[in-house]
Amino acid sequence: MPYSDYRTALVTGASTGMGAAIVEQFRERGLEVHAVARDAERLRRLADETGAIPHAVDLADVDALERELGGLEIDVLVNNAGVSATGNILDASRATVDAMIDVNVGAVLHLARLLLPGMVERDLGHVINISSIAGRYNFFGHTAYHATKAAVGQISRQLRNDTVGKRIRVTEVCPGRVETEIFGRNLGGTPEALQQAWETYYEGYESLTTADIVSTVDFAVAAPRHVNLGLIEITPTFQVAGGLTFDRREA
Ligand SMILES: NC(=O)c1ccc[n+]([C@@H]2O[C@H](COP(=O)([O-])OP(=O)(O)OC[C@H]3O[C@@H](n4cnc5c(N)ncnc54)[C@H](OP(=O)(O)O)[C@@H]3O)[C@@H](O)[C@H]2O)c1
After folding, report:
1. Among the four 46, 135, 226, 233, which has the fewest Cβ within 10 Å?
2. 42 Cα nearest atom in ligand 1
3. Could you tell me if the CB of 39 is within 6 A of ligand 1?
């Protein structure tokens, strides 16, 4: 489908990382873009630079979602916002589990509930869900992160069933490690935490960049209208999902 058939987009997690980069690309492609995140100041800067329309909304606040975004006519919905945490379920806090469920899954379902009926009515739309290889493979990330990202895969496939017979496309983009703030946020989000995360997770690795994710999203959205790219797994060349673990019992 020529990109030009789409007029509007909404991107969550737009204040930084992949979301901000996707907003820039969509604006260059000529879409009206609604940019959603909590940090109003960052969104304002993005709006100044790109002409995107900022919405400072907490995706965990369903009332705010309905109020601020419910009435919009959106052709391309990018569910990009996501949160993670260090550790696993053994040392999880109530707040981090709730945040992962609310942002990684709840908001995806609520935005589909609010915006997909309009796409169906107009017989035109594209939902891009950014999941993670954590949703497909087991490694030592947070239990709730793996679970919520697996749910994003299931939602993506189910939305295809919900809208079959209409010109609605759904693409799950499933990345491996990408250079963003996500690991630094897990360590507290301070400049020191971001630096520490950079040294631990990115220094010396050839990770993906946000530009790689933008190219992937662009490829899916620009594909001819009869083509639905359902699942795109993208990892750094040096990152593989291997490594079955067989630990010795501790004495
Ligand atoms: N980076 C990786 O290695 C990697 C790998 C695989 C998948 N992913 C996934 O890719 C997506 C983008 O991640 P990223 O790495 O670009 O993350 P990031 O740099 O940490 O950015 C996260 C974005 O989500 C927004 N956000 C978080 N909580 C929110 C809330 N309650 N309400 C509204 N917005 C919220 C943040 O904005 P505010 O703080 O301003 O609200 C920010 O814009 C996520 O779904 C992530 O799980 C990342």
Report:
1. 226
2. 40
3. yes
